TrEMBL record:
Residues 4-58 form the HTH lacI-type domain. It comes from Dyella telluris. One of its GO terms (molecular function) is DNA-binding transcription factor activity. InterPro entries: HTH_LacI (IPR000843), LacI/GalR-like_sensor (IPR046335), Lambda_DNA-bd_dom_sf (IPR010982), Peripla_BP_I (IPR028082). Keywords: DNA-binding, Repressor, Transcription, Transcription regulation. This is LacI family DNA-binding transcriptional regulator.
Length: 333
């Protein structure tokens, strides 16, 4: 059977080819009644737009790329959801890749997207200004998320990691009344991890200056949180309050505590960071720092869309605020 063309759709719908193009590309300028007639004709003819041909004409793929450090876990699921919902609202498709194996992996993933996307969203602990200059065309619209690269050629949207960690540590010390707080850190060199640890250390210096800073290594995974929890329980004197640098580690840590027969928060208090969806449904529910993860993705996509519409990059860095969310694991409202 011969493949239907846009001219066939126009003939059956009794409209111009331009009207078919505007209706199917959601560009406006066509009445709702006409749009429905065109879509009905397209369904009848089983017409599928030739995106490759359209891209040659418009030099647009109507696709955006997202480079993330990983695709596993609720944080990235929520982030992708926020990006995708905003992209679909603008008629854009989303191409996602990861860079969890380091600089070479990030470079390969980014280069594989070039020519296939109209713009890039990048969240990666491996990315700095030198990396961007080496791997990214200077004219490609790009927005960075949670990035130490500031004041350069790209728009940046960050989370207030340091402020959020400071606020949670202050809550555990001052409102919950714990004499000290143990911190489970994220991966070494990771921007989020570094900023959250700085917030913890700053709050400890301000509100518990005589207490020792106590940092345990982690890697943002449930498994690392579980092992950190086991390590803390093996001490002669276990801590009274633990603050994990993300919720996934807090989940693993909570399991270790419950496995050992401890009551949370009666025997040991616990808090996390990110407010992933499952946090409120744990038993007991997890106190955490709310990041509004989907909003981060939506804001980044909308900032990128402004560039795609032909506007110049603003070269600004925006910071999204965090909020302490107190549930049952930290022992104080």
């Amino acid at each position: 059977m011969k493949k239907a063309t846009i001219k066939d759709v126009a003939r059956v719908a009794q409209v111009s080819v331009a009207s078919v193009s505007r209706a199917l590309n959601r560009q406006g300028g066509v009445t709702a009644e006409t749009v429905e007639r065109i879509r009905a004709a397209a369904r009848q003819l089983r017409y599928i737009p030739d995106n490759a041909a359209r891209s040659l004409i418009t030099r647009r793929t109507h696709t955006v790329g997202a480079l993330l450090p990983d695709l596993y876990g609720e944080f990235f699921s929520e982030l992708i959801r926020g990006i995708d919902l905003a992209a679909r609202a603008r008629g854009l498709q989303l191409l996602v890749s990861s860079s969890h194996d380091g600089l070479e992996d990030a470079s390969a993933a980014m280069r594989a997207m070039l020519g296939r996307v109209d713009g890039m969203l990048i969240l990666s602990p491996w990315v700095d200004q030198a990396f961007l200059e080496a791997n990214l065309p200077g004219d490609l619209p790009t927005v960075l998320m949670n990035s130490p690269v500031e004041g350069g050629e790209h728009d940046v949207i960050n989370i207030d990691n340091r402020g959020g960690a400071h606020a949670m540590t202050e809550h555990l010390l001052r409102k919950a009344g714990h004499p000290t707080v143990t911190f489970i850190a994220g991966p070494a060199g990771n921007y989020d991890s570094v900023q959250r640890e700085l917030g913890y250390r700053q709050a400890m210096a301000e509100f518990a200056p005589k207490a020792a800073v106590d940092v345990v290594a982690g890697s943002f995974t449930e498994e690392s949180g579980y092992h950190a929890g086991r390590e803390l329980l093996a001490r002669k004197q276990r801590p009274r309050a633990v603050f994990a640098a993300n919720d996934m580690m807090a989940v693993g840590c909570l399991y270790a505590f419950k496995e050992a027969g401890l009551q949370v928060p009666q025997d040991i208090a616990l808090a996390g960071f990110d407010d992933i969806p499952i946090a409120r449904y744990l038993t007991p529910s997890l106190s955490t720092v709310s990041v509004h993860i989907a909003e981060l993705g939506r804001n980044a996509l909308e900032r990128l869309a402004v560039q795609l519409d032909g506007h110049e990059r603003s070269h600004t860095t925006d910071t999204l605020g965090c909020a302490v969310v107190i549930r049952h694991t930290c022992g104080a409202s």
